[in-house]
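Quarterly update, task 2.4: iron/sulfur cluster-bound model.
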Amino acid sequence: MISLVASAVSINDRCTACGACLPTCPSRALLPGPLRPIVVADRCTECLECIEICPRDAIEESPR
Ligand code: SF4
Ligand code: SF4
């Protein structure tokens, strides 16, 4: 099923796929993807913890 919910966060091309953000998400909304993590929009609670942890500043709050 395709989710039409917009992600609260998005991951830009500064991501090096280090994986550091994956275990920090309390909602398991970050999954490994082919190039960089995937945000599962309908699991994300917008806690923004992943933004704090990323060493590359690659996670951004999406515009609403
Ligand atoms: S912590 Fe940042 S650089 Fe590492 S995988 Fe997550 S988004 Fe990419
Ligand atoms: S904002 Fe919070 S819930 Fe959403 S992906 Fe980041 S860590 Fe997970």
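Highlight for this quarter: The chain has one domain: 1-64.
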